[in-house]
Design a protein that fits this description.
The complex is a heterodimer of chains A (about 160) and B (about 575). Chain A is of the alpha+beta class. Chain A folds into 2 domains: about 5-80, ACT domain (Alpha-Beta Plaits), CATH 3.30.70; about 85-160, ACT-like. Chain A, domain 2 (Alpha-Beta Plaits, 2-Layer Sandwich). Helices cover about 30% and strands about 40% of the residues of chain A. In chain A, a hairpin with a 3-residue loop joins strand 6 (about 115-120) and strand 7. Chain B is an alpha/beta fold. Chain B folds into 3 domains: about 1-175, Thiamin diphosphate (ThDP)-binding fold, Pyr/PP domains (Rossmann fold), CATH 3.40.50; about 190-355, TPP-binding domain (Rossmann fold, 3-Layer(aba) Sandwich), CATH 3.40.50.1220; about 370-540, Rossmann fold (3-Layer(aba) Sandwich), CATH 3.40.50.970. In chain B, strand 21 (about 550) and strand 22 form a beta hairpin. In chain B, helix 11 runs parallel beside helix 14 (about 320-330). The chains are: A alpha+beta (about 160), B alpha/beta (about 575). The interface of A and B includes residues 17, 20, 24, 62 and 66 of A. Bound molecules: thiamine diphosphate.
């Protein structure tokens, strides 16, 4: 069966060790977590965890089954095949070295990248998009010499309900 | 009314109808022990915390109620881990209370501090660290609810010392907890499917598991099998969920299953699996397991469906509720089977039974372990609760002691924990003081929790140990004989204590049996004594458990010992 990336949204009771339970049960059973985002919801007692993992349908079913067994898990949804939007965010620092400076400025202009810090020696960009947009941007950033980068996991919003 | 944490704990236990606690004190729980001293709660002082958990587990398995333990922080807590993992693998409801250092010291590597909720996260159904006295009463209530609801399991509650010393308002009538039971709705379409499948099947077979016993569904399963003349096999955990003396019973399936059970699974065209999880010891190679059959899987835990075996018809729900609805549905929809067809299938099974029955050969001067078990069955007429350790003796018990009633075999199936049976027997006997409670043990396993002889002696818990002493770690020795050309690497247990003297040193009666003709009289004597008794049966050293499906093989391919391989 075909393996692909799945985005799973998990509503949980906001308990101190709930993340450890989720990471523990998936790690312990040998499933891989590609990315993980924990966010607040409008209710204080409930948090939302958005997780991405790679697997075929069978594996994803098992992951969902394991998650549902956890006492603190309220609801599990696979957002991959429902109408939903997905975003990631990256922060990138590019050093304005003498040889790259012009090239960087040009790239920022043509790509309409958002500069959030502009210093003499470096700039910091903030980029958001879905996975393919981020990957596309990264391919263009690479030749400019990435001094440092940080990337969030996927956050996703279900448009179906 | 304002109460201290320790008082709330005892009140909450009473509210849960807890009759007995198995425990062991230490610094972090001395306040609780002081409260116990002032209360009427029954407490059994074990000699090792592992023993406390297994005893509570035995109590739970034999009664269907929640077993309760109390231990101190640090090493007291870590000593419970094997017991908790054992209960978790077999879905046994327990609540384990552990002491913890005061909340202000947590994280400081304080004396006897240990992150027991972290350690037990993967081997409990759920666990709690109670950080505030205000949460105590609700947490205890929730712990019991989680332990027994849905697919049961062990729950650990970690109690910091300062929380237990603090006071708060206790209002038992107003404790609100989250409900963990998922609503069950009968699936009429699936029942129709099953009826259709049963109508077209010529060779149906029921496979019953621990979930039938946990779900208290044995009577319904038995009714269904008898009414529609469907033969039944079972997993180790399912023994007792269908009468072991019924003609429809095929015995256990799997690695050491009967020839006829494994043949029936391999030839059936419809397998109705109830409350099982298709452990690899049961299925052999998955590809060939019940290869000719459509598989129906009834289980309370959706995550166990399609986990190991691909299923044609899954029915999620409490085994009792589902079987009840099914019986009603079949009745209302006039389901009948074709008697002639069914007879053909039953005849085929009868032929397998006749061709390769479970046998052993008790001749000569050496006691055969199977003979001891059969004699025990004969003397008790099966009216006993049997616990086992883990190894060959456990498999022989499963093969040669027919269990007619649920909750009468108490054995560690999933984890296979040596040292389980004896403390578990203590827990069983506390619940059933008037019943014969017998631990069928091996000489390796019994030494893993032998210290509990003191517990049995102190409280006059009159359990009997039937020690099948082969002076080997018999099960690994069997594998070494069959798969390692008899290189008996570290499985020889000839160096052992004199078990009779050891029993006596603890204040327990010790009896030794070396001749086959002494087996029956000694068992009679041991069972009749109103004392804990250890009976040391010197049995044939290199007996093997057969049939045996070699690891990685199909279950239709059994090695039968002195007989050649039969396919
Ligand atoms: C705690 C633990 N350690 C190791 C094992 C592996 N093991 C399974 S059976 C067995 C030997 C059991 O020997 P004994 O209790 O004498 O029983 P026998 O097989 O001889 O009947 C061992 C070492 C285990 N199941 N549990």
């Amino acid at each position: 069966m075909e393996k692909k990336e799945h985005i799973i949204s998990i509503l949980v009771h906001n308990k101190p060790d709930v993340l450890a339970r989720i990471a523990g049960i998936l790690g312990g059973k040998g499933y891989n977590i590609e990315s993980l985002c924990v966010n607040a919801t409008t209710q204080y007692e409930v948090s939302k965890i958005v997780m991405t993992t790679i697997g075929n349908k069978e594996t994803i079913n098992r992951i969902e089954g394991q998650l549902r067994r956890l006492v603190d898990v309220i609801q599990v949804d696979d957002l991959t095949n429902v109408e939903s939007i997905h975003r990631e965010l990256i922060l990138v620092r590019l050093n304005l070295t003498a040889d790259k400076k012009e090239q960087i400025k040009k790239a920022v202009d043509t790509n309409k990248w958002k500069v959030i810090v502009s210093a003499d020696a470096y700039i910091v960009l903030e980029l958001t998009g879905d996975k393919s947009q981020i990957d596309f941007a990264l391919a263009r950033l690479e030749p400019l010499g990435i001094a440092d980068i940080t990337r969030t996991g996927v956050v996703a919003l279900d448009l179906d309900d | 009314m304002k109460l201290k944490g320790t008082e709330i704990l005892l009140k909450a236990l009473e509210a849960e109808n807890v009759e007995i606690i198995f425990g062991y004190p230490g610094g972090a729980v001395l306040d609780i022990y002081d409260q116990l001293y002032k209360s009427n709660m029954n407490h059994i002082l074990v000699r090792h915390e592992q023993g406390a958990v297994h005893a509570a587990d035995g109590y739970a398995r034999s009664t269907g109620k929640v077993g309760v333990c109390l231990v101190t922080s640090g090493p007291g807590a870590t000593n419970t881990v094997t017991g908790i993992a054992t209960a978790n693998m077999d879905s046994i409801p327990l609540v384990v209370f552990t002491g913890q250092v005061p909340t202000g010291l947590i994280g400081n590597d304080a004396f006897q501090e240990c992150d027991i909720t972290g350690i037990t996260r993967p081997c409990t159904k759920h666990n709690f660290l109670v950080r505030n006295i205000e949460d105590l009463a609700a947490t205890i209530k929730e712990a019991f609810h989680i332990a027994r609801s849905g697919r049961p399991g062990p729950v650990l509650v970690d109690l910091p010392k300062n929380v237990m010393a603090a006071s708060t308002e206790y209002d038992p009538a107003n404790i609100k907890i989250r409900n963990q039971e998922s609503p069950y709705r009968p699936a009429f379409k699936k029942m129709a499917n099953l009826q259709e499948m049963l109508t077209t099947a010529n060779k149906p077979l029921i496979m019953t598991g621990g979930g039938v016993i946990l779900g208290k569904a044995s009577a319904l399963l038995t009714e269904m099998a008898r009414k529609y003349q469907i033969p039944v096999t079972g997993t180790l955990m399912g023994l007792g969920s269908f009468p072991g003396t019924d003609p429809l019973w095929l015995g256990m399936l799997g690695m050491h299953g009967t020839y006829y059970a494994n043949m029936a699974v391999s030839h059936c065209d419809l397998l109705i699996a109830v409350g099982v999880r298709f452990d690899d010891r049961v299925t052999g190679t998955i590809e060939t397991f019940a290869a000719k059959a459509k598989i129906v899987h009834i289980d309370i835990d959706p995550s166990s469906i399609n986990k190991n075996v691909a299923v044609d018809l899954p029915i999620v729900g409490d085994t009792k509720a589902v079987l009840k609805d099914l019986l009603k549905y079949f009745e209302e929809h006039n389901f009948t089977y074709i008697a002639a067809e069914r007879q053909e299938w039953l005849n085929a099974i009868a032929d397998w039974k006749e061709k390769v029955p479970l046998t052993y050969c008790q001749n000569g001067k050496v006691i055969k372990p199977q003979f001891v078990i059969e004699t025990l069955y004969k003397l008790t007429k099966g009216d006993a609760i049997i616990t086992t350790e883990v190894g060959q003796h456990q498999m022989w018990t499963a093969q040669f002691f027919p269990f007619d009633k649920p909750n009468t075999l108490v054995t560690s199936g999933g984890l296979g924990t040596m040292g389980f049976g004896f403390p578990a027997a203590i827990g069983v006997k506390c619940a059933f003081p008037d019943k014969h409670v017998v631990d069928i043990a091996g000489d390796g396993s019994i030494q893993m929790n032998i210290q509990e002889l003191a517990t049995a002696a102190q409280y006059k818990i009159n359990v009997k140990i039937v020690l099948l002493n082969n002076e080997f770690l018999g099960m690994p020795r069997q594998w070494q004989e069959l798969f390692y050309e008899k290189r008996y690497s570290h499985t020889d247990m000839t160096y052992a204590p004199d078990f009779v003297k050891l029993a006596e040193a603890y204040g327990v009666v010790g009896l030794r049996v070396t001749k086959p003709e002494e087996v029956e009289p000694t068992l009679k004597q041991g069972l009749a004594l109103d004392k804990p008794v250890l009976m040391d049966f010197r049995v044939s050293r290199e007996e093997c458990v057969y049939p045996m499906v070699h690891p990685g093989d199909s279950i239709s391919n059994m090695s039968l010992g002195s007989r050649e391989m039969i396919n």
